[in-house]
């Protein structure tokens, strides 16, 4: 029994053999969109929603926030500046990337929405609208 290896560890060891070291070396080049997506929190603050997104190193003009039929979308298009392009890097871990995250807010008002980008955190306040009757009861004959 002592020589038994849990299946998940065994499969993980085989999946990286014999090129595990090469995979670790080239890992920064093989990122997926899921790795580049930013973290986002949505809070119900009673009379409004507070949406925060962690966007370190992103400038205000690289962010686009839209509310379309209750769906709040935050899009980021991070570009490399002209100053950065001319430098001769030996190692560089920053890159150009873009990502979009969204959340559906069923009773979001279309007016009074505010946004602020400070300290790498985007905060969007979306007021709630008073409930309107979207449901119509149909009588069956």
The number of helices is 4
CATH architect. name of the domain at 33-127: Sandwich
Low-confidence stretches: 27-34
Task: Please give the alpha-carbon distance between the first and last residues.
Answer: 69 Å
Question: Looking across the biggest beta sheet, what order are the strands in?
Answer: 1-2-7-6
Structural class of the secondary elements? Answer: alpha+beta
**CA gyration radius, whole angstroms:** 23 Å
Family: Belongs to the small heat shock protein (HSP20) family.
Organism: Tractidigestivibacter scatoligenes
Domain SHSP: 31-141
Protein name: Heat-shock protein Hsp20
Describe the protein's architecture and organization.
Helix content is 18%, strand content 33%. The protein is an alpha+beta fold and 141 residues long. The protein has a domain of 95 residues: Sandwich (Immunoglobulin-like), CATH 2.60.40.790. Strand 6 and strand 7 form a beta hairpin.
């Amino acid at each position: 029994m002592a020589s038994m290896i849990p299946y998940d560890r065994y499969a993980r060891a085989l999946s990286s053999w014999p090129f595990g070291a090469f995979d670790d070396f080239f890992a920064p080049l093989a990122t997926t969109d899921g790795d580049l997506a930013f973290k986002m929190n949505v809070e119900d603050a009673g009379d409004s929603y507070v949406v925060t997104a962690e966007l370190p190193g992103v400038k205000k003009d690289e962010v686009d926030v839209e509310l379309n039929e209750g769906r709040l979308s935050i899009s980021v298009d991070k570009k490399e500046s002209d100053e950065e392009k001319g430098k001769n890097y030996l190692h560089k871990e920053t890159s150009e990337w873009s990502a979009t995250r969204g959340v559906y807010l069923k009773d979001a008002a279309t007016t009074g929405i505010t946004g602020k980008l400070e300290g790498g955190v985007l905060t969007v306040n979306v007021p709630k609208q008073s409930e309107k009757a979207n449901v119509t009861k149909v009588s069956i004959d």
